[in-house]
Amino acid sequence: MRDHPRSEPSPPTDPVSEVWTGRATNRGQWLLAAAGAACVALGVELAVESPWTSGVAALLMAVIGCVAAGLLVLFGTLAFVHVELTVDHEALEVRCGHMGLPRRRIPLKHVVCAEFAPSVTPRQWGGWGYRWRPEKGTAVVVRRGEALVLTLGDGRSFTVTVDDAEGAVRFIRRRLPLHHRESRRESRREDHPENL
User: pLDDT tens digit string along 88-117?
Assistant: First the structure.
């Protein structure tokens, strides 16, 4: 019989995640999307079923108006039914809707500070969606509630509503000093190339 030496069990390690992901969803946007689809259907019905007695120009304007308004509402709301936020060791990426558009990528080396906002509302930003206000910065708002607020190196801010925004803030803050140290090292190398 062979005696197999027992290997000592390795102590449990807490793996540090290299990527943080979060989402926020607004199911109320589906109601607006349904209203947009109804407008498109009305425009199609007008085009197909209309008796053409009121004149071609009036009918054409009604059909185009219904279809255009319906498509605008439909795609505008579907783009912001949910938002997905992904943060890795070098950048933060925000993707909206099922197609992932609009999309924004912010390198962490451009982030000065990450903060938690406990309550952000669409009213503060003038509605849902991808918003810009000169005094506040840029935001992606898909629902009311907690949000991540980034201050960028150029002084602008970027806000995104996402579930577990505090987790995102902690994840980003752990990576910010590393980026700032690396950028300081690179600038020293450029200033003093003889040290290489």
Answer: 988 999 998 767 678 899 999 999 999 999
Contact 98, 71 (CB under 8 A): no
As a whole number of angstroms, the distance between CA 109 and CA 150 comes to: 12
Q: Which residue has the tokens 């219904």?
A: 66
Angstrom distance (rounded) from CA 112 to CA 150: 7
Report the C-alpha gap between 168 and 108 in whole angstroms.
Answer: 13
Instruction: Give phi and psi for 67, each to the nearest 5.
Output: -65, -45
CA–CA dist 37, 40 (Å, integer): 5
Task: Mark out the alpha helices in 50-155 (DSSP H runs).
Answer: 56-78, 122-125
Which pLDDT band holds residue 41 (cuts at 50, 70, 90)? confident
